[in-house]
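A student in our group prepared the protein record below, which I am reviewing. What it holds is a sequence and that sequence's fold in token form. My question to you is simply how this chain folds and whether the tokens agree. Do not assume that whoever made the record got everything right. I have pasted the whole thing underneath without changing anything:
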Amino acid sequence: MSTRNLVFSRSHVAGRRAEMTDLITAQRPSAVPFSALDIADSSYTESGTMELLHRISYPQAS
């Protein structure tokens, strides 16, 4: 299992969604599942966190 560190470089919602999509797309071909995800962004909101968790848990729905 691997740990991924995620730092959002964009402050607007559309930019963060694009970065989430990049993360999920990069993870799909990996044979190693996440064991931990460190979101290094103190300004991230509860709704943003829930969206990220949903998109990681159900990537086919994204």
About this structure: The chain has one domain: 2-61. Residues 28 and 60 are 10 Å apart (CA to CA). The first helix runs from residue 13 to 27.
